[in-house]
């Protein structure tokens, strides 16, 4: 009895988490990773947004991910069907027509939760304990931006927003300077950057340092459960595009790095910086301008993660996938 009490007293508090996502191959890997980690992550809901594919498909794929993870009790709310201002863009060339490379999709057993993701975010964050909820942002930031525009006071409920997006040292992946999630809705990212919330960015700078290798894929395959087979099939197809485009020996698993960061931040390093996103029409549309050397002496509005431990990442992912069926 005493031992149990002592252990509980020492356990780190769970992270109260909302995952905003546009699944998306790497999003689904991130969702399986997060949903396999209930000891650390209290996933309250998945909120979906148009991004890699249209909203109906990202919402279906999020529901598939929770089904595959055996976590159908986690509600999925559909959010914005298009960006704040720009013309919608999709990434079917990378993620496939259904938004899930390498595997067949079906209609999931359980439907969407009633109500929109934006209303869910407003209601939840408004009534939350001060600075208690973390948001993992795995796609364009449209849902949170719309919620912040309608109810700026919801900032009080947010502990931290952890974004997969942006690029500085690495260069872009959709234009020479812009990363897809920021390019898909720069005005939304701007709203979040200017909102005063605590922000962490995992940009291409770090995700391109955490690449798959044959050994990493083999360690996942060796689990030989349904989750590992799904992740193996998704990744083997998904990484092809980046490996060819960049001449890389493996591919990044972008969105899953956000989950690894939440579970084990000690795998990563970065710096507090001032970040601005360019939302003007032109060649630099969607670019993140990062004042790494503090030349502007401007307020530091984000923690910019610049590197990470690739083997540590794949060991953690493998360990968590082993917990699923
Ligand atoms: C990001 O863009 C999307 O295509 C991926 O899902 C990831 O969120 C990488 O640039
Ligand atoms: Ca994504």
TrEMBL record:
An example molecular function term from Gene Ontology annotations: uridine nucleosidase activity
Family annotation (CDD domains): nuc_hydro_IU_UC_XIUA
Gene3D superfamilies according to UniProt: Ribonucleoside hydrolase-like
Cellular component GO terms, alphabetical: cytosol
Alphabetically ordered keywords of this record: Glycosidase, Hydrolase
Annotated GO biological process: purine nucleoside catabolic process
Hydrolase among keywords: yes
Extent of the signal sequence: none
EC number, as in UniProt: 3.2.-.-
Protein name as it appears in the record: Pyrimidine-specific ribonucleoside hydrolase RihA
Organism: Pseudomonas fluorescens
